[in-house]
Specification:
Largest sheet: 2 strands, antiparallel
Distance between the termini: 32 Å
Membrane topology: Multi-pass membrane protein
Keywords: Cell membrane, Membrane, Transmembrane, Transmembrane helix, Transport
Strand content: under 5%
Family: Belongs to the binding-protein-dependent transport system permease family. CysTW subfamily.
Pfam families: BPD_transp_1 (PF00528)
Radius of gyration: 24 Å
Oligomer: single chain
Number of strands: 2
Number of helices: 13
Order of helices and strands: HEEHHHHHHHHHHHH
Strand order of the largest sheet: 1-2
Protein name: ABC transporter permease
């Protein structure tokens, strides 16, 4: 009896979390997948098992090649933002984590600075994005300062409601997701390995490339998954900072939901999920994140 209880104990411990994931994660995904095959009109939605919504999402895309259809351009725009934001957050996150782990000697100071990086979480995403508007607008602080020092003769329009402002907002929102996992990985690096590299004559860049980065790749992968997942599905940041003029996969899905076109919105959501999963699968082919768990 005791052996049986001990054998089933791990399953009972995991059961509450498994039930929560089943109800709030797996079940909604299954419902979304099912709805993506339903049919709809301007006033009704009918259960069915057809692929019309997927065909509508990519209507005439293959026939229009080599020109890109609207759907392909939208997904390419989303991937472009994702790649740019990922690269910038990776550089910033890695730099901050490196500074905290290898340059800050006091544990108390390291803890304080690490907590400071979480300050953006203290306010909502919308407030943080809106805070950029008085800075980047035509009459904003940045343009007024540039005009006052004579660097420009007229306000810069591309600072706000542009690709630049979208990338800036997404980097602002998501850098912390890259900092924390990399910081966690770097903090586990044995400092004697770094000292040994220097003792054998390795330069700072050689030590960074051959010792620190390989030992931090698990944190880099986890941070990348966080950033890519958030950016690929984002529609609020792109809508506010892009002036509702920049297309993304998330914006398309939002527009279809607002128009009560739930089946085709579900089809686009399934396609977007498949793309994100393929990106994550590619990352996991190179890095085993189970070492960090």
């Amino acid at each position: 009896m005791l052996e049986m209880k001990s054998r089933w104990a791990p399953y009972w411990q995991a059961a509450p979390l498994a039930i929560v994931l089943l109800i709030f994660f797996v079940l909604p995904l299954l419902v979304t997948l099912a709805v993506s095959f339903w049919t709809y009109t301007g006033y009704s939605i009918e259960p069915a098992m057809v692929s019309d919504n997927y065909a509508s999402a990519f209507d005439k895309c293959l026939a229009s090649l080599p020109d890109l259809c609207t759907t392909f351009r939208t997904y390419l725009s989303t991937l472009k933002f994702c790649l740019i934001v990922w690269l910038i957050t990776l550089v910033l996150g890695f730099t901050v984590a490196y500074f905290l782990v290898f340059e800050v000697k006091s544990n108390n100071m390291r803890l304080i600075l690490a907590l400071i990086t979480t300050i953006p979480f203290w306010t909502s995403n919308v407030i943080r994005m809106i805070s950029w508007i008085p800075l980047l607008g035509r009459n904003g602080v940045v343009n007024q300062w540039l005009l006052s020092v004579g660097l420009i003769s007229e306000p810069l329009d591309w600072l706000l409601y542009s690709n630049f402002s979208v990338v800036l907002a997404l980097v602002h929102l998501n850098t912390v997701f890259m900092i924390v996992p990399i910081l966690n990985s770097m903090s586990r690096i044995d400092k004697s390995l770094v000292e040994a590299a220097y003792d054998t004559g390795a330069s700072g860049w050689q030590t960074l490339w051959n010792v620190i980065i390989p030992l931090s790749k698990t944190g880099i992968a986890i941070g990348s998954i966080f950033v890519i997942t958030v950016v690929m599905g984002d529609f609020i940041s792109i809508g506010l900072m892009g002036g509702q003029q920049i297309a993304s996969a998330g914006k398309v899905i939002e527009s279809q939901i607002n128009a009560l076109q739930f089946p085709i919105a579900a089809a686009n959501a399934v396609v977007l999920l498949a793309i994100v999963l393929m990106i994550i699968w590619t990352l996991l082919r190179f890095v085993d994140i189970r070492k960090e768990l």
